[in-house]
Amino acid sequence: QTKLVHITDIEKDKAVLEEAGRIIRAGGLVVFPTETVYGIGANGLNADACRSIYAAKGRPSDNPLILTVPDQQGAEKVAACITPTAKKLMDRFWPGPLTIIFPRQPQVPDAATGGLDTVALRCPDHDICRAFLRCADVPVAGPSANLSTRPSPTTAEEVMHDMDGRVDMVIDGGPCCIGVESTIVECDGEDSVTILRPGGITMDMLKEVVTYVRLDTNLVTGQGAPKAPGMKYRHYAPSAPMTVVVGTEAAVTAKLKDLYEDALADGKTVGFLVSQEVGAHFPKDDMYIWGRRGDKAALANQLYTGLLSFDTDKVDLILAEGVDGDGLGMAIMNRMKKAAGGNVIIL
Ligand code: TXA
Ligand code: MG
């Protein structure tokens, strides 16, 4: 039985957050909101509780969990050392959508880190989330609250679709404002970081603080094992196959028209996940408009809800419009490429 609770006011709803904290300390599962996507929380220092996250998500056990902390002091309790570069990153970007990889202290169980000797830490920029973390009073293991391989949920409704009956409590804090998962970085030398997963904190933002910012080779070439184990899995996938097209408004519209006509000729039903401008050229049914063309924040925010909307609409094919890879576009295109199984056309 999953208890769904709505939190609007941290003070007024204090008793509910305390109950959520007790569930975590007792080894249970609580879904919580963050500024990126919803997370499924368990006591990150309790191996059995961590294992029940894998069971609830149907997640492979070699894919490590992120530990979620309310502040830097929370990180000091589980990181074996904090380098000056990591400290600069925390000072600048916490609370916020940046996950940092640290060497772990021995009390962090293998069940949380997939056996790695490092631990991923994140401090969300979300008041309800941090109030919940303070009530829990332990680092909360918190992967995205979707079934493994599915798009991450950005509303409590989407959470309930995947997790109803699998967790003890879901805290509804309203829609997540960013909509794609946090950026993950590893500090790999003095004044140097590698991005393992692009996200809400962009490469340019990182360069304001750190001199050398690189991308994990796997993100650039698609070759080799990604350093964030979870990045190797098929992910974010809607139930229908998807093609993503990127280019000028005219080029994208023309290409999508071709693909649409081919699909109709094959007797297929088509869903569109496109900007307002491109959407205006196509019939209105099975159309998910993510926002104005070029508005990357809007696309990030609407991407997963858009993908999930076609699950219930049951189309045979999704035709989507992407964006260039600059800024937040890097995170968006990383997710779209995975959701489309690599089927991205750049015009
Ligand atoms: O925005 C987010 O980060 C969300 C919210 C809920 O906080 N969480 C999230 O967690 O996206 P999850 O579990 O869906 O993704 C965690 C990623 C996985 O790709 C995993 O392989 C990687 O982080 N990861 C975790 N620990 C790691 C470690 N020690 N070294 C390298 N990668 C790690
Ligand atoms: Mg995930």
Automatic annotation (TrEMBL):
Residues 14-201 form the YrdC-like domain. It is found in: Cytoplasm. L-threonine binds at T36, R122, S182. ATP binds at R59, N63, T118, S144, S152, R197, Y236. Pfam families: Sua5_C, Sua5_yciO_yrdC. PROSITE patterns: YRDC. Its main location: cytoplasm. Keywords: ATP-binding, Cytoplasm, Nucleotide-binding, Nucleotidyltransferase, Transferase, tRNA processing. It is an enzyme of class 2 (transferase). Coiled coil: none annotated. One of its GO terms (cellular component) is cytoplasm. GO terms for biological process: regulation of translational fidelity; tRNA processing. Belongs to the SUA5 family. Required for the formation of a threonylcarbamoyl group on adenosine at position 37 (t(6)A37) in tRNAs that read codons beginning with adenine. This is Threonylcarbamoyl-AMP synthase. It comes from Megasphaera stantonii. The lineage of its organism: Bacteria, Bacillati, Bacillota, Negativicutes, Veillonellales.
